[in-house]
Amino acid sequence: MRVHTILASAFLLLASWPSSTHSASGRRRNTLWRGDSIAVEDASGDVLVSPGGNFSCGFYKVATNAYTFAIWFARSADATVAWTANRDAPVNGHGSRAGFRKDASLVLQDLDGRVVWSTNTSGTQADRAQLLDTGNLVVADAAGRVLWQSFDWPTDTLLPEQPITRYKRLVSASARGLLYSGYYNLYFDSNNILNLMYDGPEISSNYWPDPFKQWWENDRTAYNNSRYGSLDRHGAFSASDQTQFNSSDMGEGVTRRLTLDYDGNLRLYSLDGGDGRWLVTWAALPRACDVHGVCGRYGVCAYLPALACSCPEGFVASDAGDWSKGCRREFDLRCGEPVYFAEMPSVDYWGFDFNYTRRLTMETCRQICLDDCNCEAFGYKMGTGECYPKISLWNGGAPNINQNIFLKVPTRVKNLSPAVLDFHGHACTVHEQNASVVSASSYFHVRGNKINFVYFYSFLAVAFVVEAIFIVVGYLFVFRADPAAGRVGDEEGYALLFSQFRRFAYDELSDATGKFADKVGWGASGTVYKGVLDDGRSIAVKRLDDLTQADEVFRSEMSMIGRINHMNLVRVWGYCSEHSHRILVSEFVEKGSLDKALFGGDGALLGWHSRYRIAVGVAKGLAYLHHECLEWIVHCDVKPENILLDAELEPKITDFGLVKLLSRDACGRLVLSRAQGTRGYIAPEWATSLPITGKADVYSFGIVLLELIRGQRVCDWVVDGRGGDDDVVVWLRENKRMMNLDLDDESSSWMEDKFVDPRLRSDFSHLQAAAMLELAVSCVDDDPNRRPSMNVVLEKLLSLEDDTPARYA
Ligand SMILES: *[C@@H]1O[C@H](CO)[C@@H](O)[C@H](O)[C@H]1NC(C)=O
Ligand SMILES: *[C@@H]1O[C@H](CO)[C@@H](O)[C@H](O)[C@H]1NC(C)=O
Ligand SMILES: *[C@@H]1O[C@H](CO)[C@@H](O)[C@H](O)[C@H]1NC(C)=O
Ligand SMILES: *[C@@H]1O[C@H](CO)[C@@H](O)[C@H](O)[C@H]1NC(C)=O
Ligand SMILES: *[C@@H]1O[C@H](CO)[C@@H](O)[C@H](O)[C@H]1NC(C)=O
Ligand SMILES: *[C@@H]1O[C@H](CO)[C@@H](O)[C@H](O)[C@H]1NC(C)=O
User: Where is the Apple domain positioned along the sequence (predicted)?
Assistant: First the structure.
C-alpha cells in the first residue's frame, strides 16, 4: 500500500508535467487537456476562466504560503469562493501543481509530489477538464460525456442549477474568511427533510426548519424520498420536501449563490454588478441566535443588535476567542449534595430535555430535576406549567418570554443569588440563601418594577418586523456584522438586555432630576436635564415636548433605539411614556458637546490628536448606524451640538433615531425648518426632492470634519474673500482640483494658512490634515452619489492613524 503511494509519487515526479510549454500566463483558457497543468507560483496569472468570464478556477491563497484549488466568482470584489477541492488540506505555495494527467484524472499535488486530491476518473476515456459558464468544473471525454463534475462535490455553496441531493451536504466554513470545514450542515435527513444542523464535537442539533414544530407544521413533506433540491436561474429554490423560497430580486441575468455561512445561517446572495459586492436576498434564519451551537455549552445568545454570547453567573468562557467552546462551570456539581436552584429569567436553553410534561407545578418540576443527578437545570413556563428538565445546557437564548431556566447549584456555592441570577449585579439585589425556588409571585415582584415585560413582547415583535424588512429589501447588514466582533463582554450583553434599557415611571425621573431642575441643554427635539438614578448612574433626561405619538408607537420605536449599542453613540437607557409625557433617558456624557470644546473660547484648546480621534469616533458611530446596525437609521442632524465628549474626549453621537421619531415619512424635513441656526450642516438634497439617504449624514460629517480642522464654524469662514454658509463649500468644490495638486506638496503652507486652526500654532500632522481636508471635500460633494459611504470615510481616516506622533496630543 505504502510502496504503492511512494511509487506513484515517484512516477509523478519523474513524469512530471511536460513543463509549462503551453500554460502561458494571462492567456484565457477554460480547458486543461491531458498533460496540461497549472503551477501555484503563477496563481494570479494562470487560471481557467469560464467562457463568459464569470468564474475562475485555479490556486486560491488561503494563508501565507497556503493554497487551495478552487473555483471563485471572478467578478466579485473579494473573489468569493464557490467550490474548493482541498478545503481542509491546503497545499504549499511553492512547487504545488494541479493538472490533468495522462491517465485522465485531474490531480492536485503538493510540493513533495503527494497527491492531495484527485478526481476519480483515472483510466477512463476522459481527455479534458473544463470550466463551464455555470461555474461547474467538469471532466469529460471526447464525446462530451461528463465523468466527473465539481457540482457533485459541493462545499459550502450551491450555484444555480447545482442540486443538493441524498448523498451531498453543504458544510459551512469554520470562520469568517476561512475555507476550512466548520460545524454547520445542510442536508436531507432520514425523514427526507432538508435541514440545517449544528454538528459539533459534542452535540448535534437541528435548527432549521423550526425545530419546535413537526415537519407538517413547517409546511414540509416527508413522503417524497427523491431528496433533491436546487436553485433555478430565476432565483427560486425548491426541494422535494416542499422547501420553497425565492430571491428578493427574482429574474434572470443575476449571479447568485446559496451559501451556508460560517455563522450557521443559510443565505441567498446576488452579486451587485456595479461594485462586485454581494447582497443578501434571502436568509433561512432572520434571528441569528436561532442558529444552534453559536454560543456553545452554557452560553446564552442575545441579539443587541449584533450577536452577543455571554456566560451565566458562576460560569466563565472556555475560550474567549471561540464562543463555540461555550462556558465552563466555576464549581462542580456532585451527586447527592444539597443544592438550590438559581433562576435565569427570560432565558431558554433549547433541547436536551429528558422529560417533558405540561401542567405541573413548579415544585413538582423542581423535584423531578432534584431527583435526577443528571439533571443540570429545568425550564419552566408559567401559565401552561410546562416543565423541561435538562441533562445538558446548549443553545441558550434570551430574551425568551415566559420561560425561565432554573439552574442547579450546590448549596456550598454561596455567591449565586437564588432568586435571580442577575447578570449585571445591581439591578436585582435579592440575596437570600434559600434552597427553594422563588415563587412566581415573588419573582414578578422582584422583576416587576425593573423590567416591563410588555417591553419584551414589543421588542421581539419589532425585531421580527425589522428583520423581515431587511430580507425584503435584500440588505442584511446585520448579518454581515462579524459575530466575533459583536460578542460583547460576558456581562455587558445581559446588562443591556435585562438591566439597562427599560421603561421609567414619570415620578422616578422627576425624583432623579429634582423635579427637572438642572437644565443642561436645549435641542431641536426637546430640553435636556441632568439627573441621578437611585443606583448612582448619572443620566441625561430629554423631554420630547412636541411628541404626540400613541404610547405603543413610541414604545416600539424606543425599543428600537434601545437596541442600538456602540461606544460612539450615546447609550439610551430607557424612556418614559405616561399621559402626555414622552421622555428619553440616556447616559450622561461628562464634557458636553463638541461645539463648546471646539468653538467656545473657554476651556483648554482641543489638540490635533484629540481632533483626529473625534473625527474617527464620529465616523465609527455613523458607520455603525448606516451599515451595521439598522440601515435606515439616517441621523439627519449631524452637527457639533449633537456630538458629546466623555472624560477621555471620546465622542458620542446623540439624538440618533429621533428624527425618524419626530417625522416618520420624510426623515424629518422639519429639521430644515427647525435648524435655521445650523443650516450649514444640511446637505443640498434637503432643498430638493431627492430622497434623503445616509449620504446626507456624510455631507454633514464633511462639514464637521472641516470644522475640526479649522476650529471654526464653516459659516464663519472667509476664504479668498468669500464667506458665510454655503459659499465656502462652493469654493472648496470649485477649487478641489487645485487643492489636490497642492495637498501633495508637503512644503506648501497654503493649506495651513487657509484651513488649519491657527490656534494650533502649526502643531499638527500635515499629512493627516491634508488627507482629512481632501476627504471632507469629497464628503461635501453636490451629488450624493459621489460622496463616499461612511464605511469608506472611516477606512480612510483609520488609514491615517499612524501619523499621529504623540507631540500633537
Ligand atoms: C455573467 O454574469 C452576469 C451577471 O452578473 C450575467 O448577466 C451573464 O449572463 C453571465 N454570463 C454568463 C456567460 O453566464
Ligand atoms: C471511484 O468511484 C467509485 C464509485 O464512486 C468507487 O467505487 C471507487 O472506489 C473510486 N475509486 C477511487 C480510486 O477513489
Ligand atoms: C418528489 O420531488 C421531486 C423533485 O422535487 C419531484 O420531481 C417529484 O414530482 C416529487 N414526487 C412526488 C410524488 O411529489
Ligand atoms: C416564488 O415565486 C414563485 C413564482 O416564480 C411563486 O409561485 C412562489 O409562490 C414563490 N414562493 C415564495 C415562497 O414566495
Ligand atoms: C416524567 O415525569 C412524569 C411526571 O412526574 C413521570 O410520571 C414520568 O415517569 C417521567 N418520565 C421519565 C422518563 O422520567
Ligand atoms: C426559605 O424558605 C422557607 C419556605 O419556603 C422559609 O420558611 C424560610 O424562612 C426561608 N429561608 C430564608 C433564609 O429566607
Answer: 335-410
Ligand nearest to the CA of 165: 3
pLDDT tens, residue by residue, 402-423: 678 888 988 888 766 533 333 3
> Is 244's C-beta closer than 6 angstroms to any atom of ligand 3?
no
| 773, 739 Cβ separation under 8 angstroms | yes
Cβ–Cβ under 8 Å, residues 589 and 620: no
439 lines ligand 6 (CB under 6 A): no
Q: How confident is the model at residue 578 (pLDDT cuts 50, 70, 90)?
A: confident
Tell me, yes or no, whether 9 lies in a domain.
Answer: yes
- 662 in Cβ contact with 655 (< 8 Å): no
Strands 722-723, 339-344: parallel, antiparallel or unpaired by DSSP?
unpaired
Overall number of domains in the chain: 5
Give the DSSP letter string of 220-278: --SS-TT-EEEE-TTSEEEETT--EEE-TT-SSS--EEEEE-TTS-EEEEEE-TTT--E
What is this structure's pTM?
0.55
Q: Whose CA is nearest to atom 11 of ligand 6?
A: 434
Q: What is the pLDDT of residues 688-708, one digit of tens each?
A: 656 667 888 899 999 999 999
CB-based contact 194:186 (threshold 8 Å): yes
Q: Give the domain CATH number at 209.
A: 2.90.10.10
Of the listed ranges 48-52, 476-480, 504-508, the one predicted with least confidence: 476-480
Ranking 40-44, 222-226, 415-419 by mean pLDDT, the lowest is 415-419
Q: Are 95 and 108 in contact (CB under 8 A)?
A: no
Given this model, what pLDDT does residue 677 score?
Answer: 36
C-alpha 357 to ligand 5 mean position (Å): 8
Closest ligand 3 atom to residue 229 Cα is 5
**Residue 480 lies inside a defined structural domain of this protein:** no
d(C-alpha 329, C-alpha 332), whole Å: 7
Which residue's alpha carbon is at the smallest distance from atom 13 of ligand 1?
52
141 is a domain residue: no
Ligand 3 pocket test target in 164, 220, 224, 231 with most atoms within 8 Å of CB: 224
Residue 542 known to bind ligand: yes
Which is catalytic among the residues 637, 655, 757, 781?
A: 637
- Full domain range(s) for residue 161: 154-290
Decide whether any atom of ligand 1 lies within 6 Å of the 271 Cβ: yes
Residue of the CA atom closest to atom 8 of ligand 5 = 355
Q: Are residues 275 and 421 in the same domain?
A: no
- Distance CA(337)–CA(779), nearest Å, equals 67
Q: Nearest ligand, CA of residue 105?
A: 2
Q: Is 637 a catalytic residue?
A: yes
210 plus 110 within the same structural domain: no
> What are the C-alpha distances in Å from 320 to residues 36, 486, 624?
47, 13, 24
For residues 65 and 92, the answer to whether their CB atoms sit within 8 Å is: yes
